Amino acid sequence: MAEKPMWEQIGSGFVQHYYQQFDTDRVKLAELYTDASCLTWEGEGFQGKNAIMTKLSSLPFQTIQHSITAQDHHPTPDSCVMSMVMGQLKADQDQVMGFQQVFLLKNVDNKWVCTNDMFRLALHNFGA
Amino acid sequence: MGDKPIWEQIGSSFVQHYYQLFDTDRTQLGSIYSDARCPVTNKFCRVFSRGIFSGQKCGSIDASCLTWEGQQFQGKAAIVEKLSSLPFTKIAHSITAQDHQPTPDSCILSMVVGQLKADDDPIMGFHQSFILKNINEAWVCTNDMFRLALHNFG
Fold this sequence. Notes:
Chain A has 128 residues and is of the alpha+beta class. Chain A has helices spanning 6-25, 49-57, and strands at residues 33-41, 44-47, 64-75, 81-91, 97-108, 111-121.
């Protein structure tokens, strides 16, 4: 069986690590971001590692669990890796909710960091 | 009130154009993707290691990639063929939310959450993400990922 393409290995490796860290001790996510990273969390923008970590650390739940339904990875024109994740999460005693997240990963000094991160709960204001 | 940042203007304008085109005549979507031959560099891109691209060079580091429900397509022709052959006559997309960010390499990353209705099927949620790159003064879509919001549990 052929090996997965490089960008899929990098992307899926990152995604697994990200959610594992998020669910166990999200303070440790700091190493994945740089001062040039951008996060958009439910429509609100945060720039740089410090602002991002302040936001993630202050999210109002004690326990959180992510479950990945699907993930896709692409190489981008500028040798980055784009990853899109669709899944479900459960925070504390709240009901299970769908979410979508997109990451852009860049190799900086031989390490893959997250330069762009966008997260949304899959909540629609109409229809089914 | 300040203007929206430029990447938001470009991103939201692209998103509006994309879904308008998709819903009215998706065979015209070719205009937003890039050809297999890069007009700017002459570099060959990475080699795909499986599927129909196995062992082949794609021809351009800027050839567009689409992943549609987990299936990958490379280059404008393959992408348009896939989109044109989707098995519905009518389609309507409704955007619930969209986010846009500038990337380190001057591209734009856009994420869309929405709902769609194909023919008489029930409304379904979808997720789509795009990377836009400025090539020869036009913003083209180099990366496109689409998934229906279907979960297998819970």
